[in-house]
Fold this sequence. Notes:
- The complex is a heterodimer of chains A (about 325) and B (about 550).
- By secondary structure, chain A is an alpha+beta fold.
- Chain A folds into 2 domains: about 15-165, Beta Polymerase, domain 2; about 175-285, Poly(a)-polymerase, middle domain, CATH 1.10.1410.40.
- Chain A has helices spanning about 5-15, 20-40, 50-55, 85-100, 140, 165-175, 180-195, 205-220, 225-240, 265-285, 290, 300-305; strands at about 50, 65-70, 100-105, 110-115, 125-135, 145, 165, 250, 255.
- The radius of gyration of chain A is 22 Å and the shape is globular.
- Chain B is α/β, with parallel strands linked by helices.
- Helices cover about 25% and strands about 30% of the residues of chain B.
- Chain B contains 13 helices and 26 strands.
- Chain B has helices at about 1-15, 95-115, 195-200, 240-250, 315, 325-330, 340-350, 385-395, 405-415, 420-430, 440-450, 475-485, 510-530, and strands at about 20-25, 30-40, 45-55, 65-70, 140-145, 155-170, 170-180, 190, 205-215, 220, 225, 260-265, 270-280, 285-290, 295-300, 310, 330-335, 355-360, 365, 380, 400, 435, 455-460, 465-470, 535-540, 545-550.
- In chain B, strand 17 (about 330-335), helix 7 (about 340-350) and strand 18 (about 355-360) form a beta-alpha-beta unit.
- The interface of A and B includes residues 276, 287 and 291 of A.
Amino acid sequence: MDKSSHLDSVIKTHQITKEEQLLKKHKEKNKEVKEALEKKYEESIYSPFNSGSYAKNTAVNIKFDFDMVCPFKRNAFGSNGTLKQMYEDVFDFLYDKYKDEASVRKQKVSIGIEFFADEDGDVVKIDVVPGRELSQDKYKDDENLNLYVYYKYGNFDQGSERIKTNVEAQIKNIKDRATKEKDSIRKIIRLLKVWKNTKYNYPTKSFFLELITIKAFDNKDVSGNLWSKLETVLEYIRDEVTGESFSLKDPGNSSNDLIDTLTVSERQTLSNDMKNMLERIEDNDENIKTYFPENPKFIEEEESDNKYKNKGNGFYSTPPKTERFG
Amino acid sequence: MEDKLKKVQSIISSLDKVLVEEPFVVDQDLNAVGKVKVIYNEIGDALSFAVKVLPEYPLKRLNAEAITFYNKELIEYGHVMGDGSICIHTAHSFDVKKKLEIDFSSLKRWIQRYFVNKEHDGHYEHIIMQPVKYKDEHHSFIFTDTEHTFQYGDFGFFDFAQIHSGLFYDTKINNRIILNFKDKYSKIIASSKWSSTYANLPSANIQFGVYVFMEKPPVAQTRFIINNWKDLQGKVPAEFFTFLHGLERNNQKAIGAPIPLIIGYKISETEIHWQAAMLEFGRFPIRHEKINQMWRGFFIDQKIDWMITRNSSYEYFFGRGKFTDEITNAKILIIGTGAIGSMVATTLVRGGCKNIHVIDHDVKEPENVCRSEYAFSNGITNKVNELNEILTSISPFVEVQIMDDQFFHVHTKVFNRPQDLKGLEKALNKYDLIFDCSTDNDLMYILSQLSLRQLITLSITNNAQALVCGTEPSHYSWIMNQYENVLQNDIDDVYNPTGCWNPTFKASYNDIAVLVQYALKNINVKMGLQKELRNFVLLTNENDAFSIKLEEF
Lengths: 326, 553
């Protein structure tokens, strides 16, 4: 089999545009939440904007959500207002507004709104990240924000008053690259997200996978066809992630090192998983299909026909090849 | 014989710091016997030992060394038996000279550690005793932990139940387990922590005995059991004599019937041990005497016939090896109890698992026996019922429950709307660990849609060339891809029994068990390290020597 064309199909079947209806519903809800926040906080807030995978163009259509950053002015909650007050105020507002149609939860630095499934069974998820500019009216210039840490995030303890970040810088980290490279980086990130989704609660965050992919592109010659590029990134992760001095600096805040979001043993597991994956795909190309599965919902008809071609079909005296024994 | 004798004597005399005190002679059993002196310090202090060398020497007699060193004066020291023999374990050799050197150096090491340094081993050394027969038969009493803390002076009744009888060497042995302890008014104060199978044995199997709890072990010279009733005087409370006397008086019709007495004592802060002796109604070894107008009880001057007791608490039962706690403490479901499922079940139970539910709709036929844990003697019977019997006969600590065989069919095939699957997911999430050994692809597909705590799906290819173990959420597509595209599954070469078309795979017990054990070992290692399980395949290779390769995904 041709590994690169399989990977192309993986990306194609995971495009969020395939989930047109769900995407439309997310956009609508996103607009509604944004307008509600603007109405509520009026002069105290800058315009909320999308961050996360949708903004970075690295989203996949399984388990996708929208992230919305709400930049508040320094004095939004009084000149002595705390970040905790900001976080709690936004939570209370969203909770009151949406409690009858969604579950509203406090998350690490965001407030998660998960709308109940509609008549089509679709679930819209929006994470609202409240942030406050560092000093009055400086946001437009420096784009820096302080976030409130609701519970432990990497090296930031629960209840920490601040975690400085620059969401614009995070978005630009991918957006500002040369088109060709940007395209490859996004593809690899999407593939890693598809892989991550085959695991139980994998500890690597999407942001981690983004940064490590970009770092691999910065440090290695990532070239050739799609498989070859992916292989280089997987090898980079395998070889580097356990290194003592390995770091993954948040482009929005260089003192935020994303490697700290994993324990030593989780780093080892990630490296082992990369090693196993590379070895198994080397053993047999077919194994790539289960590490990076296509989204079966969007496999095109002609492909489906080929997929189920006759390989021992249970024709009278022999059981099918997929007959398992025990 | 004479030659061997001379050789032994001459070698011993040549050993460093060993002197022959009494020359070796051959006794009527053809053993070489003599006496030696072993010098153990610089100033020439020595210990004497009688030495007996059996004709097999330097080979062993059964499991025992064919040389023994005796000194009755040393019995208060560690590792000395009641007859004064020193308990040494030494290396094997075919050569008499080498073997004597080895054995004497073991003896010297014993002298240094236990005589000179007076070392005490950390672990408890059980009392040295020789069980005797009661009416030409042996009787054993097997006990386990209870929640109760016994105190010095406690006494009362206990219930015991007969399990299988057998042969103890050349004598019949009646095996009993202790079920509970009662106070002197027959109120239960402590139940043994056996599984419900044993706790609820039929009442026809149940008899009673009496117990008393002492402050210290019933021993003389630290490790040797007291062998005369009168030597137990003062070690039990005065009321115990009244209790025994009343019991005997109220059971006049039982004269001549045996009743066991068990004597308990602490062997550590948390552990207790019991020794059993058989009494007989009408001949209790006690007497009463009026002293200062008060009746007082005494033990009489009579030999105690000690029976066999064994501590079979969970810690002892699995003391030699078990699975990691992550597995043994898990609530486990095994779906499908054919070749793989039955092996998984028995291995988990021998590994210390305590809570296992099983489900299978199939009936065991004679031809299933050759590659499963089932037995011919049980004939044609439901697999789950026979497995339940096998598992509970292996371990007295496992609770086995048989699930309704229609459970999965109803939940997955009759009702399979999304809301039904939520119900199934909830029902299955009471299990920490589910082994799907059903090889049912429909069921595997449905289970793959659920979010379960830990599902492990096991199956093999024809001829047991590979074992496929799915452990991750995506296991359905992964397993199907292995069978369809990656592995060799030679489905032309299946076994067709006579009669209606019903082919099955080819593989022996050994072919399957070697892979099942390997897989369980890997699961045990990963879970013990608290690592996430990954899908894996075991690939066999028979090209030259047999080998197994684990490929983790």
